[in-house]
Write a structure and sequence with these properties.
372 residues, alpha/beta, Arc Repressor Mutant, subunit A, Nucleotidyltransferase, domain 5, 3 domains, 12 helices, binds zinc ion
């Protein structure tokens, strides 16, 4: 599909180009950005002015180095449009705000068991937590993403969540948006968002990132991007069958990975249970690695808390079963159990960085405040 290269489109493209350079690891001046992008200094200056006016870029104090006019290094504005991350867990809700530079500016979670609840009460609790973190961060909020431990269809509607039996066909994004005064809220699968968080934190470009909790999910990263499957539902590793005659699963199936490697099966940290979970994870992952040819597996969510015996059991199983010559790098995530929540907020920030023109040309940024 071709996009007409009108002036508007070119400007929007160039805004993103300039912002990407400013977001890079080294502070650049306007001249530096011009040199790296191939745009003229005049064009860069005018684009930078727009980005500064939109609160996306800030100018640091000028450095006097060599001869000539001192150059002012540019950086992302930490007081600029931020991302709101929200999470509905099986036993908790969480909210956090991540600023443009990727720093967490406010973060709260609260215990709240949703297994027997209809969505309304949980969404009200989550919206109230969101208002609290937005007030604490006191930054303009560009949008929100909500992480959910369930299957999200291509239309953004939660189809089902095996551990939240009353959450069927729920448009969680719209329901939260209504409660937050029209703030745009997208829904995403929690394991997918945790996988993206892993990647944005410098993790491997090709990997299966498993998110272990009461449910078990995975995000599949290929070439640095999330592999969504035909309808955005890829990665449901928790419902890969590891024992056809095994116990019943919440999904309606039998012998799913989740029944052996979910937190309920691991409760108590009994050494035999941990070994069995590691073995089952290794078997399910062997299938995934052989199908997808990924060199790395990251175990996140609550798995790092299970300690080295789990990691060793998964490693041993993959080493024995996968016939890749290079082997598979299996490691624990360093991001902690809130990776999905961080990923949800960072997804908003990444969208702003990828297309700043959307904020400048289009809807503008919502100021932080109480929902109407
Ligand atoms: Zn299942």
């Amino acid at each position: 599909m071709s996009v007409p290269a009108g002036q508007h489109t070119v400007r929007r493209h160039n805004l993103a180009l300039v912002l990407r350079e400013v977001a890079g690891p080294e502070p650049l001046s306007r001249a530096g950005v011009a040199a790296r992008t191939g745009l003229t200094r005049g064009t860069v200056s005018s684009l930078v002015e727009e980005l500064i006016a939109a609160g996306l870029v800030a100018e640091l104090a000028a450095e006097r180095g060599g001869p000539g006019r001192p150059a002012s290094p540019l950086r992302l504005d930490p007081s600029g449009p931020a991302g709101l991350g929200l999470e509905v867990g099986v036993e908790a809700v969480g909210a956090c705000v991540v600023d443009l530079s990727g720093a967490v500016r406010a973060h709260r979670t609260t215990a709240s068991d949703h297994r027997d609840d209809a969505p309304d009460a949980a969404l009200a609790r989550l919206a109230s937590l969101a208002v609290d973190v937005m007030a604490e961060a006191a930054l303009p909020i560009a949008g929100a993403t909500v992480a959910i431990p369930g299957v999200i269809g291509p239309d953004g509607v939660l189809e089902r969540a095996p551990n939240l039996p009353r959450w069927v066909d729920v448009d969680v994004g719209s329901a939260l948006s209504e409660r937050l005064g029209g703030l745009p809220v997208r829904a995403g699968n929690e394991a997918d968002l945790a996988a993206l968080a892993e990647r944005w934190a410098g993790g491997p470009a090709d990997a299966i990132v498993v998110s272990g909790g009461i449910g078990v999910g995975a995000g599949i990263l290929l070439g640095g991007a999330l592999f969504p499957g035909a309808g955005g539902r890829a990665g449901e590793i928790g419902h890969v069958v590891v024992d056809p005659d095994g116990p019943a699963c919440h999904c309606g199936g039998r012998g799913c990975l989740e029944t052996v490697a979910g937190l309920e099966a691991l409760a108590g940290g009994d050494a035999d249970a941990v070994r069995a979970a590691g073995r089952a994870l290794g078997i399910a992952l062997t299938g995934a690695v052989h199908l997808l040819d990924v060199p790395a597996v990251v175990l996140g969510g609550d798995y790092p808390g299970c300690g080295p015996p789990l990691l060793e059991a998964v490693r041993a199983e993959l080493a024995a079963r996968v016939f890749s010559r290079a082997g598979v790098d299996v490691r624990f995530s360093a991001l902690g159990p809130d990776a999905a929540l961080r990923g949800a907020a960072t997804a908003v920030v990444q969208a702003v960085l990828a297309d700043p023109g959307r904020l400048i040309v289009g809807n503008g940024v919502r100021a932080t405040g109480s929902p109407s």
